[in-house]
Amino acid sequence: MTTIDLSTQIAGIHLDSYLMNASGPKCTTWDELLVIGKSASAAIVTKSCTLEFREGNPEPRYSDLPLGSIQSMGLPNLGYKAYLEMVPELKALGKPVVVSISGFSIEENSEMVTAFQNSDVDLIEVNFSCPNIPGKAQVAYDFEQTESALAALTKLGNKPIGIKLAPYFDMSHFIAIANIIKKFPVKFITCVNSIGNTLIIDPETEQPIIKPKGGFGGLCGDYIKPIGLANVRAFRELLDDSVQIIGVGGIKNGTDAFEYLLAGADAVQIATCFEKEGAVCFARIENELKAFMAKKGYNKLSDAKGKLKPL
Ligand code: DHB
């Protein structure tokens, strides 16, 4: 059988494969990050961190759904200093380390970006799209704030910075965000985060199925795959090829991963499927993607990347 090469790069950082975990499930504690390190995930991505340790929102704050999940975790994490201290041991696991940061202001994000700029992490993903903090708007839906945050955060060092974007639903918003990104040395974008503030109701109990924010939470999984694909596609067409795109949203098998490749993703992240299936999902999806590409006669990502055919 021909060997299929799934190696790729994000901001010049080599990845042995196209698949990694998403900042989200099972990447908060050292033990969880170790499991990712030992899996086929091409990188170790941490849970979004804040200045201080956070317990997160009251439970129940996550629920499986037939076609995905809904969550309102509320940024439970160890506080950024704990991840900073873990960097040498995470790096020793032999793959790139991506830290996700999610401060509550430009000042907080500046403090964390500066700290990680002075560490050995490979990539810094700044999360502009957490929907689950009561009273806090998503930065990614506030274009002025997105611009001022990028102006401040992209001048704090030479390590590549990327941003995790919210899903957009209007062409004017794709264009507005792409034009802001073009003003700064943003090296990659990760899209999409969950669709924020959705509501699942249990008709038997007559209650929402998660507790925080009256039941409003981020929708994930199969439900959001068409939205993730559209966001990757739109930004691939609007941004220069020097900005890599990491696709996220509803990838649970090899053909999902291939669809994101056609849309133009340089790599993809797995969240809900990893939550439900565990770390074996990375090798399984990798093998499925390789088998699908082999069947098509493709042997490397560039054979199909961005090559969605017009109808
Ligand atoms: C959380 C959810 C998100 O979608 C995100 O980007 C960051 C944090 C959370 O609730 O913990």
Give a description of the structure.
With 311 residues, the chain is an alpha/beta fold. The chain has a single domain, classed as Aldolase class I (TIM Barrel). Helices cover 33% and strands 20% of the residues. The strands form four sheets. The chain has an eight-stranded parallel beta sheet. Strands 5-6-14-11 form a four-stranded antiparallel beta sheet. Strands 1-2 form a two-stranded antiparallel ribbon. α5 packs across α6 and α6 runs parallel beside α7. The longest helix has 17 residues, at 280-296. The two termini are 32 Å apart. The model has no long low-confidence stretch (mean pLDDT 98). 3,4-dihydroxybenzoic acid binds next to loops.
Distance between the termini: 32 Å
CATH class: Alpha Beta
The appropriate CATH architecture is Alpha-Beta Barrel
CATH H-level name... which superfamily?
Answer: Aldolase class I
Element-by-element helix/strand order: EEEHEEEHEHEHEHEEEEEHEHEHH
Instruction: Tell me the β content.
Output: 15-25%
Write down the domain tally: 1
CATH topology-level fold name: TIM Barrel
For the largest beta-sheet, the strand count, sense and barrel status come to:
8 strands, parallel
